[in-house]
Amino acid sequence: MIHSLFIINNTGDVFMEKHWKSVIHKSICDYFFEAQTKAGSAEDVPPIIATPHHYLINIYRNQLYYVAVVTTEVPPLFVIEFLHRVVDIFEDYFQGCGESILKEYYVIVYELLDEMLDNGFPLAMESNILKELIKPPNFLRTITDTITGKTTGVGATLPTGQLSNVPWRRTGVKYTNNEAYFDVIEEIDAIIDKSGSTVIAEVQGYIDCLVKLSGMPDLTLTFINPRLLDDISFHPCIRFKRWESEKVLSFVPPDGNFRLLSYHIGANNMVAIPVYLKHNIFYREGTAGRFDVSVLAKSTMGKTVENLVLECPFPKSVLNVTLTPNQGKYSFDPTTKVMSWDVGRLDPTKTPNIKGTINLQTGCPVPESNPTISLQFTISTLALSGIKVNRLDMYGEKYKPFKGVKYITKAGKFQIRT
Amino acid sequence: MAGNGGFQASSGYNDRPPSSTGSGEADVGVDPATSSFFNNEFKRHEDLKMMLDSNKDSQKLDAMKRIIGMVAKGKDASDLFPAVVKNVVSKNLEVKKLVYVYLTRYAEEQQDLALLSISTFQRALKDPNQLIRASALRVLSSIRVQMIAPIMMLAIKEAVMDMSPYVRKTAAHGIPKLYSIDPEQKDQLVEVIEKLLADKTTLVAGSAIQAFEEVCPERIDLIHKNYRKLCNLLVDVEEWGQIVIINMLTRYVRSQFINPNSDDVGEEVEKPFYESEKDDDDDDNDDDGDSKPKPKQYMMDADHRLILRQCKPLLNSRNAAVVMAVAQLYHHCAPRSEVGIVAKSLIRLLRSHSEVQYVVLSNIATMSIKQKGMFEPFLKSFYVRSHDATHIKLLKLEILTNLATETNIATILRELQTYVTSSDKEFAAATIQAIGRCASNISEVTDSCLNGLVLLMSNRDESVVAESVVVIKKLLQMQSSTHKDIIIHMAKMVDNITVPMARASILWLIGEYSDRVPKIAPDVLRKMAKTFIQEEDIVKLQILNLGVKLMITNSKQTKLLCQYVFNLAKYDQNYDIRDRSRFLRALVLPTGEKGPLAKHAKKIFLSTKPAPVLESRFKDRDQYQLGTLSHMINMRATGYQQLMEWPEVAPDPTVRNVEVVMPWSEKPLLDSKKQKKTEKSFYSSSESSSVADSSDDDDDSDDETDSADTDESDSEEDSSANSNAEESDSSIELKKPKVKKVEKIEVKKDDSGTESDDDDSSDDDDSSDDDDSSETEEEIVKKKSPEKKKPPAKKSATKPSQDLDLLLDFGSEGTSGGVTSQPVQSTMGVNDLLTPMSALDLDIETNKNTTTANSQMFASVQVETKSYELLNKMSGDGLSIKYKFTRTISIFSPKMVSIELVLTNSNDKTLSGIKVGAKKIQPGMEIQDFPEIAALASKNSTTVLMSVNFNDTTQPASFEICTDDRKFNVSITAPVGELLQPNNMLEKEFIKEQGKLSGMAENSTKVKLDEDSADMKSIVSKVLMVANVVQVTSSETGIFRFSAVTLATSTLVLVSVAVKENGDAKLTVNCEKMVIGAMLMKDVKKSLES
Question: What residues in A contact B176, CB-CB < 8 Å?
Answer without folding.
Answer: 119
